[in-house]
TrEMBL record:
Domain EGF-like: 10-45
Protein name: EGF-like domain-containing protein
GO molecular function, one term: calcium ion binding
Keyword entries, A-Z: Developmental protein, Disulfide bond, EGF-like domain, Repeat, Signal
Keyword Repeat: yes
PROSITE patterns associated with the record: ASX_HYDROXYL, EGF_1, EGF_2, EGF_3, EGF_CA
Amino acid sequence: GFNGSRCEVNINDCESNTCVNGTCLDGVANYTCLCDVGFKGQLCNEKVSNCSDDACYPGVNCTDISGGIACGPCPVGLTGNGKSCVSE
């Protein structure tokens, strides 16, 4: 929106909207959050998961860690690093 006697002053919409993990860019009657790496969403308050459906071997637990992922142990009867498992 605008303020001023002739509505000539653009209101800073970033003052009332907090980008949690990002930088706010003021627009005309709106704002946009530019999210830091690793975050998403309108307010940059959702952590991006590096664990996709196929990140680890099927049935192996995936955990987000700084700079990537960690796969749990391979299922019983299989050996490997959790991302790739083969018969023992």
